[in-house]
Write a structure and sequence with these properties.
- By secondary structure, this protein is an alpha+beta fold.
- It folds into two domains: 3-82, GIY-YIG endonuclease; 90-207, no CATH class.
- It is 28% helix and 28% strand.
- It has six helices and ten strands.
- The protein has helices spanning 23-32, 56-68, 70-82, 137-146, 155-162, 176-182; strands at residues 3-10, 15-20, 45-54, 85-86, 97-105, 109-111, 119-121, 124-132, 164-172, 205-207.
- The strands form three sheets. A five-stranded antiparallel sheet has the order 4-9-5-8-10. A three-stranded antiparallel sheet has the order 2-1-3, sandwiched between helices. The protein has a two-stranded antiparallel sheet with strand order 6-7.
- A hairpin with a 7-residue loop joins strand 6 and strand 7.
- The longest helix is centred in the N-terminal third of the chain and has 13 residues, at 56-68.
- The termini are far apart.
- Bound molecules: zinc ion (ZN).
- Zinc ion binds at residues 176-177, 180, 195, 198, 200-201, 204.
Amino acid sequence: MTWYVYVLLNDAGVTYTGIAKDVTARLKSHNAGNGAKFTRGRGPWRPIHIEGPMDHGDALRREIAIKRDAGFKSRLRKTDAAMAFYSDATEIPAVPGAYVLLITLAGDTEIHLARQPAKTLAAGRYLYCGSARGPGGLRARIARHLRRDKTVRWHVDQLTSTGQALGAWVFPDGDECALTACLANFPVPIPGFGSSDCRSCRSHLLAWPQGMSLPAFSAGD
Ligand SMILES: [Zn+2]
């Protein structure tokens, strides 16, 4: 259960679907011209969709299914046009706002919250809604999430240091609780996670099961 299926998009609107164990490293090779013949010289590429972790056979089957499914890729392009996903923090504006962070856990991960027994998060995809109001705004905060090597300070740091934050959708001036509300149908793995000082949300961390599509986010006004 260590493989991911990913879909990349370039500025010409062309998609490329592939599989990898380390999507971040594979994206770097695609953009360096070494990832695949098809992607060479047609970049820069950026990820617009990721599924996994799954075993190698399932990843190969899913890759073929996506390659044949023009409607699925068309929906991905439309969603991407409405909401920018950043996997490189240097491209994010350094302004205050809210974000939805995409995190993958390759294995079951034990999470420690204050005054509660440890909880286990199953391997899979997670979405974390947060906000950045300090110096450097969204750019500094997402850069910190994308770095695995850090002092664990917030709940979410336990996921982004053990697992891998792949990137974020960002909403300048947005509100994290409005983003969480858009994900009301998504399962809450740990009630209260990241929302201990929030009255309206069950949790700012949601699981993203296979087969569920992301909603169009609205980050309030
Ligand atoms: Zn909230």
